[in-house]
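Schema walkthrough. Field components (list of strings):
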Amino acid sequence: MSTVYLGGDFVPKSEAVVSVDDRGFLLGDGVYEVVPFYEGVPFFMDRHLARLRRSLAEVRIDFDTSGVPDVARRLVTVNGLDRADRSIVYLQVTRGVAPRTHYFPEKPVPPTVYGFAKAWSRPADAVWNRGFTAITVPDRRWMRVDIKTINLLPNALAFQAAKDVGVDDAILVRDGVAIEGAHQNFWGVFDGTAVTHPETNLVLSGITRGVVLEVARAQGIPVEERPIQVEELAHAEELFFTGATGEVRPCVQVDGKPIGDGRVGAVTRALSDAFLALVERTKEAAAVVR
Ligand code: PDD
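Field assembly_structure (string):
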């Protein structure tokens, strides 16, 4: 039985109860974060915390995040995930419990804070080396997807559409631009340059995206932040996704058509290797501190 965090307490999941008046439940009025851990070591906790603070500020939920790193670490520990290869902590903050109104509660209520930890596994090398597939779907999200809100219905519908046709992910397209995946950022390689959407209101500013931009620069791999037109996909050398629960994930087929030669490309491989090397260095640095 997993232990979760709810409203200040660590409790068995079966005992964690949220009110039906919670504004997260009724209105989707909340934000969340997903922090990756490798063998119990948080990966760029500071950046996840900063993004959470920004999300909270943008939706005007008043919540002090100073305790979040400790809560996240403890969730990993109490669930026996200190040695797990890979785990994540999910943390959600809603505006709290109040009779349903479209405006904010008139008398301030404490936000509802819920967190859980779980292990995840990287796909087997043979699967990764074959690459992943995607379809393009219209991006039906609102205009502030830079805020990590719990309103994921368009993402869920897009991902399900992909699953329905037996592919691995959806590429969300708005005004002819391939913005991002349903739960990952999206990249193309053109003339050896790794390209991804700039940080605007139309894309989630992925922490993995930022890390991959940095490791690319450190490797001397050219990068560019610009919109990728959907017509460009046909002549991309490589495509890949990045995210906390995907790391660097090659995409070798879109809408049934192979990308490049239909195999995982050299830039994707180099970036994945560099990303995993940084994970190893982060673990080693934490071991020295411990
Ligand atoms: N998803 N784009 C979207 C729409 C996302 O939901 C996510 C993360 C990302 C990648 O962000 P990061 O590199 O910080 O994980 C991009 C999380 C993991 C989720 O919803 O489970």
